[in-house]
Amino acid sequence: MEAKLIKGRILKGIGGFYYIQGEDGDVYECKAKGRFRKEGIKPAPGDKVIFTPPVQTQGGSIDEILPRKNSLPRPMIANIDLLMIVASAGKPEADLSLIDKLLLYAAYNHVPAAIVLNKIDTVEDAGTIPQEYSKCGAQILQISAKTGQGLDQLKELLRGKFTCLAGQSAVGKSTLLNAVAPSLGLETGGLSKKTDRGRHTTRHSELLELPGLDAVVADTPGFSILECMDIEPEQLREYYPEFAAVTGECRFDSCVHDREPQCAVKKSVAEGIIPEARYTRYLKLLQELIERREKRYV
Ligand SMILES: Nc1nc2c(ncn2[C@@H]2O[C@H](COP(=O)(O)OP(=O)(O)OP(=O)(O)O)[C@@H](O)[C@H]2O)c(=O)[nH]1
Ligand SMILES: [Mg+2]
Ligand SMILES: [Zn+2]
């Protein structure tokens, strides 16, 4: 029997084997051809591929990786439609610097982002996130995985997309996925009584299908975000859509909106147009990038 080529998407890779969902819906085990390694390409979950399915004693192989529209390095996944940043309205207290870094990570890697504010059932008002991020370019949803509030909106957000989830431990990423697709039965954890922080219940990443939504999600464990981006301090400003309205209005074209005179961004902050706290964290992140560069060049 002659092997035929089919198109599919890689769901996961384990020990040199890739599990590919073909256009026919079945999942096939394949190895990557040697030439990929020679070319320095490693197939990743999310990759669209042309492959030869296994037949009898002949193992399957990935023959071609179709061009990627984008990819995220940690964990390595390709062709992401959305980075869903999950935060908690209650406990654990939201780490806004982390949200900033994840927004930066998404923009840097050409992936659209959304912010999902979960556990809205545990607080009387949603806090500062909706206002602080109102102009950051990401849609913001207020949700409770527990009561079901906002879940229909979340389903619409996920429908038809390949979404990657990120956020602090114990904000409810796995619980939200279980709420939209109970058959997943993902393990969820609690907060440590001592520290009010999460326990990193989810420790690995694979693509999960959401039945009925034609959607796939990757529930990703934590990682060090800044380390996997090559951003110079002068470039940071380009990743803040809040600054776009006044771009070009600063006295100096090279203005990084820090200590320069006649800065239009600082003026907008003073006028309350750009949220002050988000700008203050921008300055901190800018400083972090400057220090990183100084260390790199000594
Ligand atoms: N009250 C309330 N509790 C929630 C909600 N969503 C999740 N939780 C609880 O928060 C805890 C942590 O949830 P997980 O889903 O394990 O959190 P996670 O983000 O997957 O955490 P890691 O896997 O450690 O990264 C669990 O005890 C959940 O029951 C919610 O909307 N409201
Ligand atoms: Mg989890
Ligand atoms: Zn400026």
Strand content: 15-25%
- Percent of residues in helices comes to 10-25%
Largest sheet: 6 strands, mixed
Count the helices. How many?
7
Quaternary assembly = single chain
* Broad CATH class of the largest domain: Alpha Beta
Structural class estimated from helices and strands: alpha/beta
> Which blocks of ≥5 consecutive residues have pLDDT under 50?
none
CATH topology of the largest domain: Rossmann fold
Shape: globular
In short:
The protein has 298 residues and is an alpha/beta fold.
Describe the structure.
- The chain is α/β, with parallel strands linked by helices.
- The chain has three domains: 6-67, OB fold (Dihydrolipoamide Acetyltransferase, E2P) (Beta Barrel); 73-219, P-loop containing nucleotide triphosphate hydrolases (Rossmann fold, 3-Layer(aba) Sandwich); 230-296, Orthogonal Bundle (Ribonucleotide Reductase Protein R1, domain 1).
- The protein is built from seven helices and 13 strands.
- The chain has helices at residues 34-38, 96-108, 129-132, 151-158, 173-180, 264-270, 276-296, and strands spanning 6-14, 17-22, 27-32, 48-52, 60-65, 71-73, 76-78, 82-88, 113-118, 139-142, 162-166, 207-210, 215-219.
- It has a six-stranded mixed β-sheet, sandwiched between helices.
- Helix 2 packs across helix 7.
- The longest helix is centred in the C-terminal third of the chain and has 21 residues, at 276-296.
- Bound molecules: guanosine-5'-triphosphate, magnesium ion and zinc ion (ZN).
- Guanosine-5'-triphosphate binds next to helix 5.
